[in-house]
Amino acid sequence: MKILLMSMPDAAAIIMHESAFHMPNIGIASLGANIDAGHQVYIADLIRKRGNVREFVTRTLLKIRPDVVGLSAMAWQYRTCLKLARLVRRLLPAAKIVIGGYHATLMYEEIAASPESEVIDFIVRGEGEEAFRRLINALEGKDRCEDIPSLSFRGTGGFVHNPRGGLLDLSTLKIPIRDRRRLTDGYHIMISKVEVIETSRGCTRACNYCSMNHMYGRTFRPFPLARILADIDDIYTNRRTRWIFVSDDNFVLDPARVMEICDAVIARNYRNLCFTVQADCITISRNEEMVRKLAQAGFKVLFLGIENVSQRNLKMAGKGDIVAASRKAMALCHKYGIMIVAGAMFGFPEDTEEDIVANYQFLKSIEADTIYCQIVTPYPKTGMRRHLLDEGLVTNPDDFTRYNGMWANVRTRHLSSEELQYLVWYHQNQVMGWWEPSERVRARGPVWTAIWRYAFRPYLKVRLGRLLKSHGWRGRFELHYQRMAAANRFPDLEDL
Questions:
Q1: Residues β-bridged to residue 188
Q2: How many CB atoms within 10 Å of residue 96?
Q3: Strand partners, 153
Q4: 122 phi and psi, to 5 degrees?
Q5: Which of 1-5, 325-329, 409-413 bottoms out in mean pLDDT, i.e. has the lowest?
Q6: Which whole-number Å values give the CA distances from 76 to 6, 170, 375, 424, 479, in the listed order?
Q7: Domains along the chain?
Q8: d(CA 239, CA 233)
């Protein structure tokens, strides 16, 4: 059979412009790699085709003429996913359409019961490699849809939802597709080539704003060390890429495992290899030797979930009092030359303007190299959503296109959604000011940081200064969010 897997073109430009980061989707790459031999498998990351989505998809579909098309989407990408499913149905009526990913996993019952399900043949829920592999076999008559856990399929009276399957044995999974079966290229962080790996799945933390436990449960499963090293070797040798983003939800949950990975990477003596990972403040703050090893092994950038400076808000989010740990974790990472992207959230029920300012001041005081700030989002099926709905604080319960952390879908007891949106943007500009790359950042990217400091930033200061003079802060805010709202509108898909 011919199989085409696609991820969505929608981007969330929270740190920089949406063109600055284009990374491959490891989900479809792993899904495609683990289909049984004998099939022709292709994958495409539509993030690399944002300017001509319809033309590329149409050309690809008519050239390959796949028997099965798989589409993966987050909640805020689902509208685009449906448009592409309609395009597939229009061009190749006989092709089977499968959807998967977080939104399909969380909302499968609602999707199946909606009119939009008419263009969907199958839904793969949760961890997809085994269910999708077996589905392909079933379409060839070698298995039965009724027997495949975690699969939803169209029956005579509507969709049938098979029971959820168990978690996979990660040691059985093959490394993701990165060869010529991948129809898109040019993946980058700024001007550096980048690839993605995973070294574990799941997280044992109890954060109630996260959807992770719906995918994997509250578990943590590591890949075998040999599999991780084979993955790195494939990127380093075959893809000739030196930046690797580790997609694990929390890479450092098991410090002993992290040290083992670091020792193995150090022993291989890779040249100029750079890793970016996500980590929690508590573990980092308690394990200086691990931080030292991370730096020695080439872990150049850590995303730290600082979340909020308010103990009240941290408690509501299912976090402990991590403020002191945040300071210590930041200091340890900087001690060993690791750049920190500090993550924070705004828009908790009791937040005022003063709380927004206090959080930005905290981020500035700990000298974060850059920040990744989101507004609390009531993601489907999370504890946070249930609480905010019960409190009447969700102002946008249904338009999931705005569920990417950039938009205010909630209000607080003191601020409307509109006020919250504006104040988060305004005080980031006022408190944080123009971004000044630290020595760590300049060492990692001397070319693009020089372009930013000596060309692009001076130009923006003049241009935005004129806008500020003519439109004021409110006017500049409106113009900024008009552009953000248009970023994921694809005119060539509007009629679908």
A1: 22, 193
A2: 21
A3: 122, 160
A4: -145, 150
A5: 325-329
A6: 16, 28, 14, 20, 22
A7: 2-169 (3.40.50.280), 187-444 (3.20.20.70), 453-496 (no CATH)
A8: 9
**Helix segments in 6-52, DSSP class H:** 26-33
- Alpha-carbon separation of residue 261 from 84, 176, 205, 276 (angstroms): 40, 19, 22, 14
Angle between the N-to-C axes of helices 288-297 and 255-268, in degrees from 0 to 180, rounded to the nearest 10: 30
What token pair was written down for 249?
């939800």
CA angle 221, 224, 230 (to 5 degrees): 130
How many other β-carbons are positioned within 10 Å of the β-carbon of residue 240?
A: 8
Task: For residue 272, give Cα distances in angstroms to 109, 242, 269.
Answer: 47, 6, 9
DSSP 435-481: ----HHHHHH-HHHHHHIIIIIHHHHHHHHHHHHHHHHHHHHHHHHH
User: Would you place residue 15 in the very low, low, confident or very high pLDDT band (cuts 50, 70, 90)?
Assistant: low
Q: Look-up: residue for tokens 């409106």? A: 478
d(CA 438, CA 450): 12
Query: How many whole angstroms separate alpha carbon 60 and alpha carbon 182?
Result: 12
Chain mean position to CA 217: 18
CA–CA separation, 44 and 71 (whole Å): 10
- Is the pLDDT confidence value at 306 over 90? no
CA atoms of 410 and 392, how far apart (whole Å) = 9
Rounded CA-CA distance 82/105 in Å is 15
For 166, the token pair is 């168990």
pLDDT tens for 201-244 read: 998 887 788 877 777 878 899 999 999 999 999 999 999 999 99
Look at residue 321 in the predicted model and tell me its pLDDT. Answer: 76
**């290899």: which residue's tokens?**
273
For 339-385, write each residue's pLDDT tens digit. Answer: 999 999 999 999 999 999 999 999 999 999 999 999 999 999 999 99
Task: Return the DSSP state at 13.
Answer: -
First-to-last CA distance in the chain? 27
- Other residues' Cβ atoms within 10 Å of the Cβ of residue 186: 9
Q: How many residues does the chain have?
A: 496
| AA identity, residue 60 | T
Q: How confident is the model at residue 93 (pLDDT cuts 50, 70, 90)?
A: very high
Mean pLDDT of 82-107: 97
Read off the pLDDT of each residue in 34-42 and give the average, rounded to a whole number: 97
Phi and psi dihedrals of 460, rounded to 5?
Answer: -65, -35
Sheet (strand 21-22) strand order: 21-22, 188-189, 192-197, 243-246, 274-279, 299-307, 339-346, 370-375
Determine the Cα–Cα distance for residues 78 and 102; give it in Å rounded to an integer: 10
HSE-CB at 334 with a 13 A cutoff on CA atoms is: 16
Task: Yes or no: say if 393 and 412 are a contact pair by the CB < 8 Å rule.
Answer: yes
Residue 62: strand, helix, or coil = helix
